[in-house]
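Good day; I would like, with your permission, to put a structural problem before you. What I wish to show you is a protein chain and, alongside it, a tokenised description of its three-dimensional fold. Please examine both parts with care and let me know of anything in them that strikes you as inconsistent. Thank you for your consideration; the sequence and its tokens are set out here:

***
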Amino acid sequence: MARTQRKVKKFEKRFANNVTHKTGNFFKSFGAFLVRVFRVFDSRLTIMVVPHSHGKVINFQTNVFALVLGFLISIGVISSFIYFNRSSIASKSEISNLMNQNRETLASLDQLRDENANLFKAARRFQTSLSQSLSLLGIQQVDSKSETALNNGDLSSLFNSKEITTGTAREIADIKELASYLESAVDPIEQIGKMLKTQQSLFTEIPSICPIKNPNLHVSMAFGPNLHPLTNQWYIHKGIDFSTYRSGDPVMATASGQVVNVGYDSNYGNFVIIKHNHGIYTRYAHLSSARVKKGELVEQSKIIGYVGNTGISTGPHLHYEVHIGSDVVDPAKYVNVKFTK
């Protein structure tokens, strides 16, 4: 046991001596390295500037440390200059992009203001039309809370930068007024819709649509006094002549009813007569052919025949009449027709 302890103590002593020796050698080597480095950096250098002319030679002395330090400082200054120059270029580019975006935003804002002005003009027209319609139907009119805002909805007022309330531009305030007015107009319009829905059957029982649907449709002869195209004499035209410049276009029933006559007449050519409710009759003449039979029930918009040139006619057209009892009336009172020749 004692021998083992002595061996351990000897090992510890040798280990401590080795560590101490190696540590001392390391610090001596490191110190010698520092001395060599210091001597290298402390080495004296003479820098001479010799001009090509016969001027005076300029020389100055320094050491390696000062030269290396000056070189590092120069590299740092140049690197900083390049970095900040690039940053400045990037900042200028970003500022230019922001300015372009700002100009586009201002252009969009101007366009928005113009559209806002157009919206107010349309709102004024809507307000006038709605008021007239409500008056005709006996419905309580909408309170014109935004009359002032709408009447001032021109460009001069839109470009006025004066704010009405804190943080709210005039345009925003006007739009809020318009939105409030439109919300208040919803209820009367719904009442009109309900009224039209309840009267839907009435509209199908009276001749309220045009008998021909065609983009080339025009009125070749209106109701009333006209010159006869063949005799050139004045006479009373008892209907409206519709023309599409061609034969074969479908002719529709202008109201629901029952076909009471289908035939041919030397004057009217092929014709169809339909009886409707409320003592109303309609006649469709100069057809190329009829598509219905006597006694047949027809719905509004049903095709009853085709435009032709039969009877006394100067070209393909439809002669359309509306009778109430024994009276012949102007069909234009029941059909929304633009009178052009």
Summary: Confidence is low (pLDDT under 50) at residues 144-150, 152-168, 337-341. Helices lie at 2-41, 64-137, 147-151, 155-158, 170-198, 200-205.
